[in-house]
Amino acid sequence: MFLLLQTGMIGVFISLDFFLFYVFWELVLVPSVLHHRHLGRPAKTVSAIKFFLYTSGRSVLMLQGILTLYFQHSASFGTYTV
Length: 82
What we know:
The chain has helices at residues 2-14, 18-38, 44-77. It has 82 residues and is mainly alpha-helical. 1% of the residues are buried.
């Protein structure tokens, strides 16, 4: 899990594309939740579920922002980005 987390973190920081950034960001979420659940306090399962739900909710907002930028670029310049 730590190797998957490290791969995702490196991918987040070296990605040059918003969609690739989003994929690596989501890749980091799974090992983070499992690590959070493993090292949590007595209510660690509830804490891990809350962490997953809050992070997933923010990820959906980030995806909406990325798609908004993508379509705004199309409206402004007449072409989609590559």
